[in-house]
């Protein structure tokens, strides 16, 4: 079977193949089993089974933790989790796969799906959706936002996981700080942010903006890639060659250097927590961050911003609205035994279901279900909903390459992107080095000699 590789240059959302392929199967047994199937009965053979997962220290996982006792009571299945830093997650999961560890529920980042699926570490969900004893007739795969189901859970037209803890990049800002500086609305474009807003909002120990840029995936995805797309740039072109020396990519990277003048000292050491806290404590006026951090910014014990918090889409660039896309899916470990696989599926199906979307949202999570966000009461209560849905429905680009080699490329960007920001190399020198090292990785993997096909 040929693998499906997606170049970063591709802007459009992936075709919604998984949901369409499985819709007929879902509908077929839904009509006959809608009244018969219950989670409690489906879980009876697995009562007493313990399944293990990895969670992150983020609001969406804390929300799931609040809801898990309900699942355990209903099913008798015990869910145990380990909370670890994002930066260690992929390595820990890969070691688990290779070393035969005891993780049953796999947390899959959008850029890990190619690696995990290609190595046959994940169970295709068809195994469970084809089993009427395990498949909830109300699963409704087309009820997920297409871009989320396809980007986070699907590889080579096969669905492996269901979207969980997904988000778009948004602009969170302190409207009181903006008002004091003479602005009654946030910047609509990145150019406005840099040239009009930033000088007036940066005074003394107060800064206009914080762009989380810590070396690692935060540098490569949340900082480096964020300034490429709005300017019309990209990491790679359609032939998988570096596109970083293009005028558009260079403009984006130069923009980031100019914006550093209006960011806190040590911004290259800022991860998500530091950027969110800078806004929460009034150190900065604006950040572009994941929608998942809304609960943190509205928690009085963690944030001083209070009623001054406001949210909108990320600013537009010359190429239009091209916000960050991030998040995860939950999948079943192919190396777990059959009983744990079934129990894991029942949990994944339950926590991502339409029935649990509202409880999950109210607990602080961000569900991937379309229906929940059509509720006007939800839109009014959660101000991040409208800009997030606008970003998802507007065709957020395939923000980072999803091929298995991305982790190696990300390490290169993490190192040289940081050096670029620190002034240890020029933008051109850094871009040339990243481009060459990236092409070396892809050449070794077989992309340039026909051993691995490129998506046309």
UniProtKB/TrEMBL annotation:
<protein>
    <submittedName>
        <fullName>Extracellular solute-binding protein family 1</fullName>
    </submittedName>
</protein>
<keyword id="KW-0813">Transport</keyword>
<keyword id="KW-0614">Plasmid</keyword>
<feature type="signal peptide">
    <location>
        <begin position="1"/>
        <end position="30"/>
    </location>
</feature>
<comment type="similarity">
    <text>Belongs to the bacterial solute-binding protein 1 family.</text>
</comment>
<dbReference type="InterPro" id="IPR006059">
    <property type="entry name" value="SBP"/>
</dbReference>
<keyword id="KW-0732">Signal</keyword>
<dbReference type="InterPro" id="IPR050490">
    <property type="entry name" value="Bact_solute-bd_prot1"/>
</dbReference>
<dbReference type="GO" id="GO:0042597">
    <property type="term" value="C:periplasmic space"/>
</dbReference>
<dbReference type="Pfam" id="PF01547">
    <property type="entry name" value="SBP_bac_1"/>
</dbReference>
């Amino acid at each position: 079977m040929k693998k499906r590789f997606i170049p970063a240059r591709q802007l459009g959302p992936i075709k919604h193949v998984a949901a369409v392929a499985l819709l007929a199967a879902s509908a077929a047994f839904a009509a006959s089993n809608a009244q018969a199937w219950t989670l409690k009965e489906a879980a009876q053979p697995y009562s007493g089974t313990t399944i293990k997962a990895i969670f992150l220290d983020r609001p969406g996982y804390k929300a799931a933790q609040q809801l898990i006792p309900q699942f355990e009571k209903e099913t008798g299945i015990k869910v145990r989790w380990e909370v670890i830093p994002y930066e260690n997650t992929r390595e820990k999961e890969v070691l688990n796969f290779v070393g035969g560890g005891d993780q049953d529920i796999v947390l899959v980042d959008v850029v890990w799906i190619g690696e995990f699926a290609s190595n046959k570490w994940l169970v295709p969900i068809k195994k469970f959706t084809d089993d009427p004893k395990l498949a909830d007739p109300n699963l409704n795969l087309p009820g997920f936002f297409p871009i989320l189901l396809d980007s986070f859970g699907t590889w080579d037209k096969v669905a492996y996981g269901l979207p969980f803890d997904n988000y778009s990049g948004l602009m969170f800002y302190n409207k009181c700080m903006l008002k004091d500086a003479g602005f009654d609305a946030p910047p609509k474009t990145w150019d406005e942010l840099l040239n009009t807003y930033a000088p007036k909002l940066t005074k003394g120990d107060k800064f206009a903006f914080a762009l989380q840029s810590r070396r690692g995936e935060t540098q490569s995805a949340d900082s480096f890639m964020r300034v490429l797309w709005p300017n019309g740039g990209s990491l790679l072109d359609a032939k998988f060659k570096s596109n970083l020396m293009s005028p558009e990519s260079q403009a984006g990277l130069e923009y980031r250097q100019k914006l550093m003048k209006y960011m806190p000292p040590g911004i290259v050491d800022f991860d998500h927590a530091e950027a969110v806290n800078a806004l929460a404590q009034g150190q900065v006026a604006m950040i572009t961050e994941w929608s998942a951090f809304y609960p943190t910014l509205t928690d009085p014990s963690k944030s001083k911003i209070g009623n001054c918090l406001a949210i909108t889409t990320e600013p537009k660039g010359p190429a239009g609205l091209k916000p960050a896309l991030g998040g995860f899916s939950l999948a079943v470990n192919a190396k777990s035994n059959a009983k744990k696989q079934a129990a894991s599926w029942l949990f994944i199906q339950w926590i991502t279901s339409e029935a649990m979307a509202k409880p999950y949202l109210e607990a602080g999570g961000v569900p991937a279900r379309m229906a929940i966000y059509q509720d006007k009461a939800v839109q009014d209560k959660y101000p991040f909903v409208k800009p997030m849905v606008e970003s998802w429905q507007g065709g957020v680009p395939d923000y980072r390459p999803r091929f298995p080699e991305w982790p190696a490329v990300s390490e290169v960007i993490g190192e040289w992107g940081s050096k670029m920001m620190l002034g240890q190399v020029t933008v051109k020198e850094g871009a040339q080095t990243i481009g060459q090292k990236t092409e070396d990785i892809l050449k070794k993997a077989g992309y340039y000699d026909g051993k691995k096909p490129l998506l046309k």
